[in-house]
Amino acid sequence: MEDDGEGNFTLPAAPGVKEAVRKVISHFRKVCDVPPQRVQIKGLKHGFKVWAHAVSAKVANVAKVESRVFGDDCNVSIWKEFLFSIFGWSDYSFPVVATVLVEKYLAPRDKTVAEPFVRIQRQLEKDFQNLLQDDCIFIMPTMPEPAAYHYANLLRAQNCGYVAIFNVLGLPATNCPVGLDDNGLPVGVQVIAGLRNDHLNLAVAREIEREFGGWVCPGPIVG
């Protein structure tokens, strides 16, 4: 897939990102006995929502994020840590503190709100199990945009649905650099395999690195 199926929350995939997928597919079409096949996984466009509901302690059978981050320390002020994390003064990263805030104040209390996304998650698990089995891999962009400025993705957090959905599904995923786009920015694809088939990811990643040169420095290193 060249994107996540035009998700409602994620940004559209940039042309350079789609081209990176096409280059990788074109290479494997040349070297593989079985040609790549285009597939469309409909549920992926809901990836961000599925992930967001899955990580919420209000709707998932997991320990609260707050207790896992701060432990039993009752003296931690989440709002203080939130402000400190913005300026890099906190012992916790901004995404972690923001996740605690979302869980604590924004997550829905009614479990029925999450039921549609739980069903989508279960369907995605079945779809990928049928698709990947024990000898196939799935390729799509790592993110819909090329490499962004530091912290810029905090304002576009919904794009994490591209990668976070595979954490929820428990599938091994490997990011592979595929050079630079027309603007000189790094782009890449992610390779996803079936459960406990990490070795397929690594084999494909090595081939992609061999063909496209691995990580490419986008510019001069100063200092």
Describe this structure in words.
This protein is mostly helical. A hairpin with a 5-residue loop joins strand 2 (173-180) and strand 3 (186-193). The longest helix is centred in the middle third of the chain and has 18 residues, at 115-132. Strands 1-3-2 form a three-stranded antiparallel β-sheet. The model is unreliable at 57-63 (pLDDT under 50). Helix 2 (47-55) crosses helix 6, helix 2 (47-55) packs across helix 7 and helix 4 packs antiparallel against helix 5 (94-106). Helix content is 43%, strand content 9%. It has helices at residues 15-31, 47-55, 65-70, 78-86, 94-106, 115-132, 161-169, 198-212; strands at 137-141, 173-180, 186-193. It contains eight helices and three strands.
Kindly state the mean pLDDT as a whole number?
85
H/E series: HHHHHHEHEEH
What topology, given as strand order, has the largest sheet?
1-3-2
Helix share bin: 40-55%
Count of DSSP H/I helices: 8
What ranges have pLDDT less than 50 throughout 5 or more consecutive residues? 57-63
Measure the end-to-end span.
39 Å
Task: Sum this structure up briefly.
By secondary structure, the protein is mainly α. The protein has helices spanning 15-31, 47-55, 65-70, 78-86, 94-106, 115-132, 161-169, 198-212; strands at 137-141, 173-180, 186-193. A three-stranded antiparallel beta sheet has the order 1-3-2.
